[in-house]
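Q: Two folds, back to back.
A: First:
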Amino acid sequence: MKKLWIILLAVAMVLSIAACGTTENTTAAPKPASLTYWYWADNTEQSDLMQNIVKSFNETNTMKITVTAEEYPWNSGGFTDTIFTAIMGGGGPDMSTFKLQAGKMFAANKLLADMTTHVDAWGDKAQLNDGIWTIMKNATGDNTLSILPWTLEALYVYYRPSYFEQAGITKTPATFTEFLEAIEKCTMDTNNDGKTDIYGFGMRGAGGGQEHLGAFLYAYGATWDDLTTPQAVEGYKAYLNLFEEGFVPESSPNAAFAEIVDGFKTGLTAMVIHHIGSSKTWIDTFGEDVDAFVVPGSDKGQWTAAGDTELVVYEQSENKAAAFEFYKYMTTGEGGTTWFKTTGKGLGTNNVKATPEFTSNRFQAVAAASLQIAGVLPPTDTIAEFSNSVWAGTNQQALLGQITAEKALEIMNKAIHGD
């Protein structure tokens, strides 16, 4: 009997060792690994910057981790579809840049790795406030840390002070009514030829513009929870009125990021909504003739979108610990510092705050103030489909008068919340 007990004990030990060998120790030092990383870039400068940061990581990390960075176009959300299709088909990367709005779709298909253990063991975790981690958890709906925060940029209004002066505007708008009035006043025919030379606002009527619409909804007392209320209709009609009255460019129904940037950069528009990421471009282009203010609200509400770009590790990655080492480098490490110094994007971590680019950028204060009223679109199961497929076409029809404001909002509401 004693001999049998010894044999059983030995077998149990062998099985235990074998089982341990099949599970990655998430807190152990990462193994040497070759990882693929997919990302999008807003422009050529950011594309080159990302490649240089990855090259630096490969050359300086002592863990023999090699990252291969592959760029894919954002394409108004098409990037998300590209990765989803690739992974579902048996391909795709170890990690990628990511949008919160896609969290539930990817989590529902069990494509994202739960990085909770890695995050909890990370010494720099506390540099990111609890609210940021909560946003990440809420985006997947399963209370896991499957999305890793990288940049959160609250949207605010950039404007040209010289245009305000031409229009007779002496102070920046403090209410949403004043904001609409400023848009109207800044729509000008400067050479008296009967044609508009400057439009008050660069409307993003196509890809990504849903984030701008939120400011109108909340200022009229609506929320994203129900777009069919009288308040939502009133807010949306105020938005559509800008196009109907000619206060925004005629190309607005088809305008996405590139178009509104080009409009502001060439002097076609007096105001544009974007985040800190474009501040360097505007300073380089206009010098002192550019400033900013928080998106105004009313006594009924105030809201702005927090544009985000996060990082995720996919469940299919065979070395998640190595992938997390790259994430750390991209946030509190040298990669995060380099990215911020060039783009202005980050999470306000200690390495970022220590840079002269942070302390000297006059737009950082506006960005920080805007975060106090910022939010994200509701992380429903269908929010990615709404943003990528439904928003632009529906809004274009409403702008062109092909469907009513009520009908457009009904379609949007169903796309966000389902039946």
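A: Second:
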Amino acid sequence: MTKGKLDYSEFVDLCRGQRTIKLEERDKERIRQSRKTFERILKSDPHKSYYAINTGVGALLNRRIPRGRMEEFQENLIMSHTCGIGPPLEVEIVKGMMLHMILNLKKGYCGIRLPTLELMVEMFNRNIIPVVPAKGSLGASGDLVPQAHIALALIGRDPQQVLRAAGLEPAELQIGEAIALLNGTSFMTSCLAFLVLQSDNLIRTADIAAAMTIEALGCSTKSFGPELQELRPHPGQIATAHYLNRLLPKTKGGRKSAYPLQDAYSLRCIPQVHGAFRDTLSWARAVVDIEINSFGGNPWISTKGEKSEICQGSGNFHGQILAHAADSLSVALCSISGISERRIDKLVSRGTNDLPLFLARNQGLNTGLMITQYTAAALVSENKTLAHPASVDSIPVSAGQEDFVSMGAWAVRKAQEICRNTEYVIAIEILCAAQALDFGEPLPEESRMAKIHEIVRTRVAHFERSRVLAEDIEELYGLVHNGRLVEEAGCYEKDN
């Protein structure tokens, strides 16, 4: 499939594009040998109990499955776990789940059969994507519930019958394959990979929005100087200051600053706040890169030592580190949306720097951009509520056998919502900053800021009189969310 490890951006690219994947010959041979080893071990001692292979699961681990009912048990196990509810997950997230399951299974530690895995690869390549409800995973024994919905489609028992609709025959699972399909961190990993990519784009766009506001308000750039950053050399802080200096024109406009001695925190502390987010994001990126390339099943086959054995009691499916990474991003995203909203307030509410109040002429008749700050404030407040960490909670399940869970699935889901809210807040700041720049002296034509302003104005016109601003916000949200502003501005083209 791949000669090396995948990072988060390559993972997302495989899920979003039309690229196909394949199992290399060495992968196939490893899977065949793993299955042979698995079957040989079971045959060598048919009376030995192996968790979820010839026993029940969870608190039913001491209940043996009759030898003649192993195939029935595979379907029963999958169907009993399909308890998901809520709206269906986005197609790309489910495709990411399938990719992570394939990466997990092809390592040869779980005894999956080659035909079963090849069918899942075929589904991925032909975009045969099952419907997976968003809610139901605890992120503990991995993402049991959402993975069960994918496995349900694999065996042809899903209501949509996606395999048969595509002309494919469902898998007929044999002993041990159901538990291999259920265990893993695919939902958390897929969501976190997309979230990290989106956050990487978001922080770059937040820098652009902040630079627009700085220019519009005539703020000092002394607090972004390299010498000052070196006195407190956090990597994210240094990077942010560097980007701001690249974005801002070398020659300032003629507007007098509203803060003659020093700028407000939301303006002069951008490297410290945006930089802190970058450092948090760097850790989350490392977490998801490791998880994409890791094995998280239970039981698992060990081939090291004097003899091969089926090992039981693995905890690699536990999502605690993914939950912490998502919760950390949630908290950090609150800072980005919060500081952006404060800059919006500086732009619209004060009437400073010769800017008209609410950035509109004919005030009274026209309310201007007043209410855009209301929307930003609502989103920031919502983010603060959503940012309560999911990973501090745990509800024991399976009669106490699975007594400490990560709640990682909820952590990644709400982090995604916080990220979307923050993208909207940044879009509102861009709307207001572009309006404020219209009232200033012309920007140097060769400057990046002039190019950024032009990009915004090709999407949204200057506000002259009242109109439906929701349409403007949505237009700029698309520019933010899809990475178009960063791409078209070319401000980060030489960066990783």
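Q: And?
A: Residues 186-217 form the longest helix (32 residues).
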